[in-house]
Design goal:
6-stranded mixed β-sheet, 8-stranded mixed β-sheet, alpha+beta, protease, globular, Peptidase_M1, binds (3S)-3-amino-4-(1H-indol-3-yl)butanoic acid, single chain, Peptidase_M4/M1_CTD_sf, binds zinc ion, 28 helices
Length: about 850
């Protein structure tokens, strides 16, 4: 497969003025008729052939302006159709046959649990009909769906239904009109035996919108939260961005087999059932929050993505980065804002930093790709969102809103670029964002080395910041970025933020300084006492910030920093320093000794009377093994696991009574509600239980058993069950696990949890359990959720077992990738990720991982898997 380059972009030779589709649904042979109203681009010369994308399509008929084409007038290849001579403006009629049941890739038209559905982003529409399948070709669509009336009572597509009727042979049809010009990737069709939940929303201008959620009958009781989230999101987008919904109908459909979380098709969002269905008995607090944020994310795309879309797929972050930023702000406004930031940054620093340091690292706007499906990455989404967040902070909230208003009005109905977006922000704010644009083209995580010195005599604090971005594949040299660093100076005597004066200007006690050069010195004057700097507050830029903090400094910041995020981060840094020592001790076979300063810091947190329980729970949570690994020059999974377990047990032993008290204070019999206060109390109680279970004393075991048996809500049940299953008391865990599995055998989303919690056990026998569960009747490689729950969870969340020294974890993953490469290349390519990180491990493991990558490479590969494996072995 050949790469596609951004520099080769050319506008489309032919525009689609209108698209008319008709689907006659059949599992093995669906007929798709397409009538395209086409026009040559004024700048293209007469005689330019018409080239349409098309894959795995069986062409049955083709005509131009009603004239059937002769065989020498067109050619069909693996990638599409060429019509050699066409007029300037014309009608193209095609009819193709596709096989939804044979579609295991879940891209294009496929069936899931008997229901027909589509997934067209990024390039799935070309598996439905011949079309210029690129986002800069936008057209209004009319779609007629024909199906069996008895088995497919519900027939949906984008827009509004305009006609319906009966047909001979027990069939029926519905015709849908979508007046908004859209690219093909936003097309959707659903047909099935679905139940509907309906609600209404009145927009800010007083228009009535019907909201519909379609699910299988047994899931009717799991829709309330998604519907409520949708209405909250609609209100928020009106209030925060002035954006109103633009059709009379907004539909969401839940499907069981889906490659990602959800899809923002115009007026007809299709959701992975895991991203929409919730019930207190079956979904955890985290699942409730995830549903809320995904419902909002897809809804927000109606403007940031659909009304204004991407010119080409290199601009993917234009819609995804902006929309993630929007959904993050929405969740922050709806829940605990500091905790939302802590959770997002924890995830980002663990997973995106690892991606940016690995062989698949790429800029937020890549300049080439082989398979765009491989670029739905943390870099495009999350780093893209961090860049938009920096922009918003740089220009200020008001200018940001003016900039987004300008962007939406200037480019409504158009397909545009990242520059168009940034230009609007520059225009609205008057800021020069030229250097800032480098964030989009430069891969890798920038590192800042900071040094500070307090000059008592002159009451000055000198801060020197040096930036460097490490080389990444294809980018050896890096340029200096414009990095906003939010900071405060916390007085060591007063414990308060000191006033900041820079170059004679008073900046208040919390300010942003702008690092634009490789190295810059900032001299703060009138600094009345020796400070500890609090740098990168709120994670003001997606960088690694190094400062030679001593442990006392970190304990001080943890207790006194006015910035909640940095207070939490100081605790994490302190724990990391202690963990470093313990990892070294484990590797050297030396006895591990707990740093008393960490115990005292945790005691301080417990006694500090922090009101926000959700923040307190975060402050009591140790860095994850994955994040610890991210900090190590060479990853030693066993030493990391041993060190973290030791710290957890030491804290549990020293603070046992505090954790017991915390547990008791936060238990509640109140009926479950996914409300921030309840979620916070549950998270605090469950953090306490984790510590108690780390030492498995009688009290902890009893509480975990009782919590499981009380069966109050899935958050508590799952947490207790996980702690039991991950513990050493099989006599207690096994019956609980069995009972749970039997109870929920008919609920796929709960069974996913049942699979995951077993394969993430740290015990050494888990590989056999993984193999055993792969043979379980409920396991299927064709269901992406199940693959993620079992294989994905094992490979990504069980480092000690996945990285077994005998390489059997790697072998299992490679075997699965090889099988999935044939069934579902998108999922196969994603699954390889942990093997691509081989360079972070010892030589023996490196060789074992590379051998598995070579074994995959020897297969006949999909472009998706080929691209990832080639990069990993380059
Ligand atoms: N924009 C959507 C992307 C998506 C997708 C991409 C590739 C393959 C399958 C997919 N399903 C959904 C989701 C989103 O970001 O909102
Ligand atoms: Zn998105």
């Amino acid at each position: 497969p050949q790469p596609i380059y951004l520099s080769d972009y050319r506008p489309p030779a032919y525009r689609v003025i209108r698209t008319e589709l008709s689907f006659d649904l059949d599992p093995a042979a669906t007929r798709v008729k397409a009538r395209l109203h086409l026009e040559r681009h004024p700048e293209r010369e007469a005689g330019t052939p018409l080239e349409l994308d098309g894959e795995q399509l069986d062409l049955k008929a083709i005509a131009i302006d009603g004239q059937v084409l002769g065989e020498d007038e067109y050619a069909v290849g693996e990638a599409g159709l060429i019509v050699h001579r066409v007029p300037q403006a014309f009608l193209l009629d095609t009819e193709v046959e596709v096989a939804p049941d044979a579609n295991t890739a879940l891209s294009g038209l496929y069936r899931s649990s008997g229901m027909y559905c589509t997934q067209c982003e990024a390039e799935g529409f070309r598996r439905i009909t011949f079309y210029p399948d690129r986002p800069d070709v936008m057209a209004p669509f009319s779609t007629t769906v024909i199906g069996d009336a008895a088995t497919l009572p519900v027939l949906l597509s984008n827009g509004n239904p305009v006609e319906r009727g009966e047909l001979p042979g027990g069939r029926h049809f519905v015709t849908w009109e979508d007046p908004h010009p859209k690219p093909s990737y936003l097309f959707a069709l659903v047909a099935g035996d679905l139940e509907k939940v309906e609600d209404r929303f009145t927009t800010m201008s007083g228009r009535e919108v019907t909201l519909q959620l379609f699910v299988e009958e047994e899931n009717l009781d799991k829709t309330d939260h998604a519907m409520a989230s949708l209405k909250r999101a609609m209100t928020w987008d009106e209030q925060t961005y002035g954006r109103e919904y633009d059709l009379d109908l907004f539909m969401i459909v839940a499907v069981n087999d889906f490659n990602m979380g959800a899809m923002e098709n115009k007026g007809l969002n299709i959701f992975n059932s895991a991203a929409v269905l919730t019930h207190p008995d079956t979904a955890t607090d985290a699942a409730f929050q995830r549903v809320e944020s995904i419902v909002a994310h897809e809804y927000f795309h109606n403007w940031s993505g659909n009304r204004v879309t991407c010119r080409d797929w290199f601009q993917l972050s234009l819609k995804e980065g902006f929309t993630v930023f929007r959904d993050q702000c929405f969740s922050a406004d709806t829940n605990s804002a500091p905790v939302k930031r802590i959770e997002d940054v924890s995830f980002f620093r663990t997973a995106q930093f690892a991606e940016d340091a690995g062989p698949t690292a790429h800029p937020v706007r890549p300049d080439h790709y082989i398979e765009i499906g491989n670029f739905y990455t943390l870099t495009i989404y999350e780093k893209g969102a961090e860049i938009v967040r920096m922009l918003s902070n740089l220009v200020g909230e008001e200018a940001f809103r003016r900039g987004s208003d300008l962007y939406f009005s200037r480019f409504d109905g158009q397909a545009v670029t990242i520059e168009d977006f940034v230009d609007c922000m520059a225009e609205a704010s008057g800021e020069d964002l030229g250097q800032f644009l480098r964030w989009y083209s430069q891969a890798g995580t920038p590192e800042i080395d900071a040094h500070g010195e307090y000059d008592y005599a002159n009451a000055e604090y000198r801060l020197v910041l040096r930036q460097r971005t490490p080389a990444t594949p294809g980018q050896a040299e890096k340029q200096a970025l414009h990095i906003p660093v939010r900071l405060g100076l916390v007085g060591t005597k007063s414990g308060r933020d000191l006033p900041l004066t820079l170059d004679g200007e008073a900046l208040g006690t919390d300010a942003v300084i702008h690092l634009r050069e490789d190295e810059q010195e900032f001299v703060f004057t009138e600094v009345s006492e020796a400070p500890v700097p609090s740098l990168g507050r709120g994670f003001s830029a997606p960088v690694k910030l190094h400062f030679p903090y001593g442990r006392e400094d970190l304990a001080f910041l943890q207790a006194h920093d006015s910035d909640g995020f940095n207070r939490w981060d100081a605790g994490q840094r302190l724990a990391l320093l202690a963990l470093d020592d313990l990892i070294a001790a484990h590797r050297n076979g030396v006895e591990k000794v707990m740093d008393p300063r960490v115990v005292e810091a945790f005691r301080g947190v417990l006694e500090a009377r922090i009101d926000d329980k959700a923040v307190l729970a975060q402050m009591l949570t140790l860095p994850s093994e994955a994040y610890i690994a991210e900090q190590q020059p060479l990853v030693d999974v066993d030493a990391i696991h041993a060190a973290r377990t030791f710290v957890k047990q030491s804290l549990a032993a020293s603070l046992r009574d505090d954790f017991l008290r915390l547990y008791e204070q936060n238990r509640s019999e109140a009926p479950y509600a996914p409300q921030p206060e309840q979620i916070a109390a549950r998270s605090l109680k469950n953090v306490a239980l984790s510590y108690l279970m780390a030492i498995e004393d009688e009290a902890g075991l009893e509480l975990a058993q009782a919590q499981f048996a009380a069966n109050h809500n899935m958050t508590d049940v799952r947490h207790a069950l996980t702690l039991l299953v991950h513990g050493s008391r099989g006599d207690i865990a096994d019956p609980a696990l069995k009972a749970f599995g039997e109870k929920w055998v008919h609920d796929p989303l709960v069974m996913d949890q049942w699979f995951s919690l077993q394969v993430t056990r740290p015990q050494a026998d888990v590989l056999d359990r993984v193999k055993f569960l792969m043979a379980h009747p409920a396991f299927s490689l064709k269901n992406p959720n199940r693959v993620r729950a079992l294989i994905g969870a094992f490979a990504n969340q069980n480092p000690v077992n996945f990285h077994r020294a005998d390489g059997k974890g790697y072998r299992l993953l490679a075997d699965t990738v090889i099988e999935l490469n044939r069934l579902n290349p998108e999922i196969a390519a994603r699954l390889i990720t942990p093997l691509t990180r081989w360079a972070r491990f010892d030589e023996t493991r490196q060789e074992l991982m590379k051998a598995e990558l070579e074994r995959i490479r020897a297969e006949e590969l999909s472009p998706n898997v080929y691209e990832v494996v080639e990069k990993a072995l380059a």
